[in-house]
Amino acid sequence: MKQLGISIIGTDTDVGKTFVTGLLGAMAVDDGFAVGMVKPVSSSAVPFPECVTMDEDNYNVGLESKDATHLMRAAGIPESRRHEVNPYAIAGDFSPRLAAELAGIEIDYDSVVQHTLDVVNRYDLTFVEGAGGITTPLYGDKTFTDFMKDIKLPAVVVADGRLGSINRAILTCEYAKMHGIEVKAIIVNDTTAVDPFLLKTNVADMERYTGIPVLAVVPPYQGPDIHKVQLGWARSFIDSKKLWNTVIGL
């Protein structure tokens, strides 16, 4: 089959992009796809002494992106592919741009774009997750908007369901459209157990004002940290075949 990819964009930080991306990756593997994952630049990295597979030119040396680790575990990706998943893991609870500047790291933007496209060409289906919201600074004058535009993949927006989520979803989808990023679907990740009536009306209004389907509403997960358990649970809320058909035409 043709190698395909999906960009995952958040309406804000802490809306659960990584959790949702992990669920989608696990579902894709379960559906028979060879799956790639890319978290191109991740800040908030933590010491990771076991990370010994990297060469001296890779900024992952001694640091682990917890987001990348979650994606790898969800899709069954071995440690030997960590650099493929996450070329830059940088310490500091800042935007990737600021974290890199404070660490004295120069991100090669063009190489990050090419690396991502190379990964997409290796697998049936690759998920590319941004950091924070769509306008999060990446490097210099580049934001994740530029990055998502340059990799030219259809996108899924992950939104929360709280008060204000309609505004965030509309602004994110409209901003993406203005910059040539095609948003095909929205997934609402209800991380805070929003009142059911508010959640239902927020979801309806997201669809009404964006014209983009909300293909899943994911409730808070309270089960064990076992990916097979999460996969079975997720299938109660996400129709993966409908998602693949809507976003990538499968």
Main sheet attributes: strand count, strand direction, barrel closure:
6 strands, parallel
- Alpha carbon gap, first and last residue: 10 Å
The succession of helices and strands, N to C, reads EHEEEEHHEHHEEEHEHEHEHH
Neighbour order of strands in the largest sheet: 2-7-1-10-11-12
Q: Helix content range of the residues, please?
A: 40-55%
Instruction: Estimate what percentage of residues fall within beta strands.
Output: 15-25%
Total of DSSP H or I helical runs spanning 4+ residues:
10
Explain what this protein looks like in three dimensions.
The chain contains 10 helices and 12 strands. The chain has 250 residues and is of the alpha/beta class. Helix 7 packs parallel to helix 8 (196-210). Homodimer.
Question: What is the topological layout?
Answer:
Layout: E1 4-10, H1 17-30, E2 35-38, E3 41-42, E4 46-47, E5 63-64, H2 66-75, H3 82-85, E6 88-89, H4 96-103, H5 109-120, E7 125-133, E8 137-139, E9 142-143, H6 144-151, E10 155-159, H7 165-178, E11 183-189, H8 196-210, E12 214-218, H9 227-234, H10 240-248
Parallel strand pairs: 1-7, 1-10, 2-7, 3-6, 10-11, 11-12
Antiparallel strand pairs: 4-5, 8-9
Helix pairs in contact: 1-2, 7-8
Keywords: ATP-binding, Biotin biosynthesis, Cytoplasm, Ligase, Magnesium, Metal-binding, Nucleotide-binding
Subunit structure: Homodimer.
Enzyme class: ligase
Top keywords for this entry?
alpha/beta; ligase; biotin biosynthesis; 10 helices; P-loop_NTPase; magnesium; six-stranded parallel beta sheet; 12 strands; two-stranded parallel sheet; 41% helix; 250 residues
